[in-house]
Design brief:
Layout lengths: L12 E5 L4 H14 L3 E4 L21 E7 L2 E10 L4 H11 L4 E3 L4 H4 L38 H8 L5 H10 L10 H17 L6 H20 L3 E6 L3 H5 L4 H8 L7 E7 L2 H4 L12 H9 L4 H15 L6 H17 L7 H11 L5 H13 L14 H12 L9 E6 L3 H15 L5 E4 L9 E6 L5 H8 L6 H15 L3 H14 L5 H14 L3 H15 L1 H4 L5 H21 L5 H28 L5 H7 L2 H17 L5 H13 L5 H11 L6 H12 L5 H7 L1 H12 L3 H15 L4 H13 L22 H5 L2 H8 L6 H10 L1
Parallel strand pairs: 1-6, 2-5, 2-6
Antiparallel strand pairs: 3-4, 3-7, 8-10, 9-10
Helix pairs in contact: 1-2, 1-11, 4-5, 7-9, 11-15, 12-13, 12-15, 13-14, 17-19, 17-20, 19-20, 19-21, 20-21, 20-22, 21-24, 22-24, 22-25, 24-25, 24-27, 25-27, 25-28, 27-28, 28-29, 28-30, 30-33, 31-32, 31-34
């Protein structure tokens, strides 16, 4: 035992490991089984000692993480992730299975969470995390990466390797644990780390010295209680420091004066993806799924891995046979022999999969890397783990609504007419209001009606921090969302922010918060004189009115504010549109489009939103025709006032034409006036963009109305050469947005010559259109129409009616 313990028979058993290394995990299990210590000390925050027993709970499924956060500032937090193949997890599980005490001995989180962070804003995305090498513990930050060495990289370079991962696989992962040498790997690794510490000291991170001083104190305490039958599982980088002789006074001096904060700790689920470097949490491994496979495979790991890959590719409808698996295994073994490796590693298996199963393509290989090499395994934590009240309420709602958190992204379609789906929608909207982005709205692939919602769900481990942060607003999701909405309304700076918040309150069904938001909205709307702000606020406000029908929420107060806001927009819009430059005019054109859509919806829902018998409210809401009539009057003013930019005038004419408030002849007359020689080419081009641009279907309008196309064509051919280069970019932007078929048809019309240009009607129909109605072709659809409409056999009268419809 003297040699197996690195030449020290009178000290603790120091097991230096690589965090999240399956080879280290197997070696730790073998060493503990051989040494049978009376106590196991593990690198980690001592505040978590009370949580160790939960690791034996049946509901605890790694990967999991210890979460520590400052009680008054939950955003100031840190994670200590542990996977099934983490040596620390294996040590804890061994201790629990053999009734041996287990303790954490790293510097307490009460210091690490505030040490050097007093002036930093809390940010969960920047919390301390695990190492990218064997020198750094889970939960440790690296503020000076430029000076910090990577022990594995140094050892790999010394051994002639250019890849530290490949060196580690060859030396540790592929070595295995032989009978009689359970302690040998630790002695060799401790000797190597001792040489590195002698050459590099703390490796550029002085905090290691403080942490190691605390560890030495904890080891001494355990030795006084249990003698030398103490096993210490820590990063291999720390082994030389723990073996070094230092006085108690010297160690305590290093710890004197450290800042403190009150912290809370719990277990939270973790994922394999968050164990990888690509996640930003730097836990030290690039391939957690591969490492998990190496740790769990009882034998023939390469054959089992290739079988997993084949199953994944088959699920993606790729033709993979048993022969592919056999050939891939043979190729991996051959590559390992050619490269001088004891066994095939991830590099060899990846190359074999690419050549044999993916036919040289990296596209399916990307799927293999994402699903298997990294993986989306999500751990589970038992309900008995400590949690803030908000977390417990959220877990209760998730169970009741059958919304299980999952690491793999999935889409959820909700029908708001069903009570369970409506409750799911309210929960997701409330969580988004609290900043807990579990679900993100998505485009529905089914109906586009307001009674349907689509969500994209994906549970990320750091959402546990967001839940803890949101716990300051209330103990339940409803109470917290209500308090947060009220606070956001008071703090909102822009009117559009308040209207958007009102919409979110309706979506989340927060009846107690809505009156506060509406009061602030009315006050802000009364004081804001900027028409642009009012125009931005109106669409969101009007959209919110729909939810009175869909979700059963009373919105009559919202309707009154919306109508008042619309009236102020009607009055202030014409003066606000005068004398604008090109950029401001384009922005205002967007406001005009938004207000137009809002007015159309407002006219439909405003009256319905006012309860019967409320005369004042009915007068405020107005009638559907009255609201639209006032808006159409505003559009006529915009269309005919010369001081208004062309892009806005053209858009106003187009909106009136689409609503049937402007005859085709009058639209052609206004276009003719604008495109006359007396109008500057730039202004005329802007008018054209407003009339037929912006994705408003203007291309089809020109296809079906040759008078308008003739006016545009005649104007374009008459633009002077010196002005043509100025208007060309604007025209290209306008017409390039059309569908290819529309552009092709317009080109054919211009090449053919669209009738007598400028006349009231063309002399011939465009290509593909007959001048007269083809009654025989119309009759052919009648049987199908009767079938779709569920009508009886067609009669002569029905035929005539349906021909007219078709």
């Amino acid at each position: 035992m003297a040699d197996s313990r690195g030449g020290h028979s009178d000290g603790p058993l120091l097991l230096g490991v690589r965090h999240h290394g399956p080879g280290s995990a197997r070696a730790v299990r073998a060493a503990l089984q051989a040494a049978r210590p009376r106590v196991v000390l593990v690198e980690g925050p001592p505040e978590a000692d009370a949580l160790i027993a939960l690791a034996a709970d049946e509901g605890m499924q790694p990967p999991v993480a210890l979460l520590a956060h400052v009680v008054d500032q939950p955003g100031r937090s840190a994670f200590w992730p542990l996977a099934e193949f983490s040596p620390e997890w294996v040590a804890i599980r061994w201790a629990l299975e053999h009734d041996v005490p287990a303790r954490f001995i790293d510097l307490p989180a009460t210091h690490t969470l505030v040490w050097g962070r007093e002036d930093e804003a809390p940010d969960a995305s920047a919390t301390p995390s695990g190492p990218e090498d064997a020198a750094q513990a889970p939960g440790e930050s690296s503020p000076d990466e430029a000076l910090r060495i990577d022990p594995l990289a140094v050892l790999a370079e010394t051994a002639g390797y250019d890849d530290p991962e490949r060196w580690w696989e060859d030396v540790i992962e592929h070595r295995g644990v032989q009978d009689g040498e359970a302690f040998g790997p630790f002695a060799v690794l401790a000797e190597a780390m001792g040489a590195l510490r002698e050459a590099y000291g703390s490796g550029g991170h002085d905090r290691d010295l403080v942490r190691e001083a605390y560890m030495r104190l904890q080891v001494r305490t355990a030795q006084r209680e249990f003698g030398d039958d103490v096993a210490v599982v820590c990063g291999a980088w720390h082994v030389p420091a723990l073996r070094r002789k230092a006085t108690v006074a010297a160690d305590r001096a290093l710890l004197r004066g450290l800042p403190k904060a009150k912290v809370a700790m719990t277990w939270v689920p973790w994922t394999h993806r968050r164990l990888s470097r690509i996640s930003g949490y730097g836990a030290g491994i690039d391939s957690p799924g591969w490492y998990g496979h190496l740790f769990s495979a009882p034998d023939r790991p390469i054959e089992r891995w290739m079988t997993k890959v084949a199953g994944l590719l088959r699920d993606e409808d790729r033709i993979i046979s048993s022969a592919h698996v056999i050939e891939a295994v043979r190729l991996a073994d051959t590559l390992a022999a050619m490269r001088g490796r004891p066994l095939p590693g991830l590099t060899e298996t990846t190359d074999a999969v690419r050549a044999v199963m993916c036919e040289g393509s990296d596209v399916p290989l990307t799927l293999v890397h994402d699903r298997l090499v990294v993986g989306d395994v999500l751990g589970e934590v038992p309900a008995s783990a400590p949690a803030v009240p908000l977390q417990r309420d959220l877990a209760r709602l998730q169970r009741r609504l059958r919304l299980k958190p999952e690491a793999l992204e999935r889409e959820l379609e909700l029908d708001l007419r069903k009570e369970n789906d409506a409750e799911r929608s309210r929960l997701l909207h409330r969580l988004r209001l609290l900043g807990i982005e579990w679900g993100a709205p998505a485009e529905s692939r089914g109906s586009t009606g307001t009674f349907r919602e689509a969500w994209r769900l994906r549970w990320e481990p750091e959402l546990a921090v967001r839940v803890a942060e949101a716990g300051v607003w209330g103990t339940t999701v409803l109470a917290a969302a209500t308090a947060k909405a009220e606070a956001d309304a008071v703090a909102a700076r822009a009117l559009a922010d308040v209207t958007a918040l009102a919409e979110r309150c309706l979506l989340a069904e927060l009846p107690d918060a809505l009156p506060v938001v509406m009061r602030i909205l009315a006050d802000r709307a009364a004081l804001d004189a900027d028409v642009g702000h009012l125009a931005q606020a109106l669409p969101a406000l009007v959209r919110s009115l729909r939810y009175g029908d869909v979700r059963g929420t009373g919105t009559h107060a919202l309707a009154e504010v919306a109508v008042g806001l619309a009236e102020r927009v009607f009055v202030g819009l014409p003066p606000a549109c005068a004398a604008l430059d090109a950029e401001a005019a384009e922005e205002m054109r967007g406001h005009v489009d938004a207000v137009h859509g809002a007015v159309g919806l407002l006219g439909e829902v405003a009256t319905a939103a006012v309860p019967a018998g409320e005369a004042d409210g009915a007068r405020a809401a107005g009638t559907r025709s009255g609201i639209r009539a006032r808006w159409h009057s505003v559009l006529r003013t915009l269309a005919t006032r010369d001081t208004i930019p062309g892009v806005i005038r053209g858009r106003a004419v187009r909106l009136l034409l689409d609503d049937g408030e402007l005859a085709q002849d009058e639209a052609a007359r206004l276009m003719g006036l604008v495109l006359s020689p007396g109008t500057a080419p730039g202004d005329a081009a802007a008018w054209i963009e407003g009339f037929v641009g912006g994705g408003s279907g203007g291309g089809m309008l020109l296809v079906h109305d040759e008078r308008l196309l003739g006016l545009v064509d005649a104007w374009l051919t008459g633009v002077p050469a010196d002005a043509f280069t100025d208007v060309l970019p604007l025209l290209r932007r306008t017409f390039s947005a059309y569908e290819p078929g529309v552009r092709r048809t317009l080109g054919e019309l211009v090449r053919r010559g669209p009738g007598v240009r400028g006349n009231a009607a063309p002399t011939s129909a465009p290509p593909g259109f007959d001048p007269e109605l083809d009654t025989e072709r119309a009759d052919a659809v009648l049987p199908v129409l009767h079938l779709l409409l569920g009508l009886d056999e067609p009669t002569a009268t029905d035929d005539n009616d349906l021909v007219g419809v078709s």
